[in-house]
Design goal:
The chain contains eleven helices and 15 strands. The protein is of the alpha/beta class. The chain starts with a helix and ends in an 11-residue tail after the last strand. The relative contact order is 0.16. The model has no long low-confidence stretch (mean pLDDT 96).
Length: 363
């Protein structure tokens, strides 16, 4: 199988445009037309993981964290990053990263954490702004269904858990074809009046090109009249962190034990603000930037990682911070990615790394 086929599926699942500005998700080593007999999924791509891929004869590594975050000026093996890239290139092994774009979808990293904690229904904690657009296109009434179906298939008309959403307004369209045109309706030099409809769709920013192409392809006119409008609505499917409620409130000590068992780690935490926990906020990886939002949704606890000493004071008796560790909070991402690929390509070999890439040791 070509790695491009796998990447296409991954990028429909977690569009790269949703990654943070500092990130480097995407194909880091290799080319889309490279062939692979299987994939190796890992949290981090280290030399030992590349060695594992070589040993298992796998030509494609999919990691959550990018091995390269910024430009490399030398490839002489002085750093672990250079050595990983050099070894991957030498052995024709492709490396792909699916990082904050997988963090920033409702069904991604934080959904996996919520599921393991027993929260069945959750919402994005901090929805993304400036990600939604309205597409308005004017169509002859007879072509309404065909154009709408094409827009839906291209990713338009999705509002949260609802699909194929649109709005139709009936009206009259006028136009006068001039010399050099090839009108489907009307004659050159004569103003024409046609029964038309205005179709409106909500479209995420990553689907803009596909939606416009789909509309143009199915629209019967030589010139398609349309508008794109940036709207203030926030995309409830896309954004950082997640929050939700447990089926029943748990005593704080029991919840703490539940978290410890789930993540398999020691926990650094602030003073409990309540005897019981019901509303839970989470952010896999470094999530201190979401503390204010977790307070705003009145979460009892905020589970994340990488808190510094003075940042714990920011709980300010309004929420309880639970720091479970960066690796520990994202360890389930390996299974999340592997499960997705297995469902998409059921006859394809999907391996998960046997290497523990956590750089932190505990005594």
């Amino acid at each position: 199988m070509r790695i491009g086929e796998i990447i296409n599926a991954l990028e429909e699942w977690a569009p790269p445009v949703l990654q943070e500005s500092y990130d480097n998700s995407g194909l880091i080593v290799g080319a889309l037309d490279w062939e692979t007999s299987g994939v190796l999924v890992t949290l981090d791509c280290l030399e030992s993981v590349v060695d594992e891929a070589i040993e298992k004869k796998v030509q494609f590594i999919i990691a959550h964290h990018p091995i390269v975050f910024s430009g490399l000026k030398r490839f002489n093996g002085r750093t672990y990053v250079e050595r990983v890239i050099m070894k991957a290139i030498k052995h024709n092994i492709a490396i792909y990263a699916i990082h904050t774009n997988l963090d920033n979808v409702l069904w991604g990293v934080n959904a996996k954490i919520m599921s393991l904690l027993g929260v069945s229904n959750h919402s994005v904690l901090s929805p993304m702004a400036d990600t939604l657009y309205k597409f308005q296109v004017y169509v002859p009434r007879a072509a309404r269904k065909e154009v709408a179906e094409a827009v839906f298939a291209a990713g338009g008309g999705k509002v949260s858990a609802y699909q194929e959403c649109s709005f139709t307004t009936n009206g009259k369209g006028t136009f006068k074809p001039t010399q050099g045109t090839n009108p489907v309706v009307g004659e050159i030099g004569i103003r024409e009046e046609v029964d038309e409809v205005k179709l409106e769709f909500i479209v995420p920013n990553f689907a803009i090109s596909a939606v416009e192409h789909a509309a143009r392809t199915t629209h019967p006119y030589e010139e398609m009249a349309y508008e794109w409008l940036n709207i203030a609505n926030k995309a409830t499917d896309y954004g950082a962190g997640a929050y939700g409620e447990l089926p029943e409130a748990m005593p704080f000590d029991a919840f703490l034990e539940h978290v410890k068992t789930t993540f398999g780690t020691t926990i650094r935490y602030t003073k409990p603000i309540a005897d019981k926990v019901r509303t839970v906020a989470v952010c896999g990886g470094s999530g201190s930037f979401l503390l204010g939002t977790a307070k705003a949704v009145k979460a009892d606890v905020f589970i994340t990682a990488d808190y510094k000493y003075h940042q714990f004071f920011d709980a300010d008796a309004a929420i309880t911070i639970l720091d479970v560790g960066h690796f520990e909070s994202e360890q389930f991402t390996i299974g999340l990615i592997a499960e997705f690929i297995e469902k998409k390509f059921p006859k394809f070999a999907v391996l998960t790394t046997e290497v523990n890439t956590n750089p932190i040791q505990y005594y």
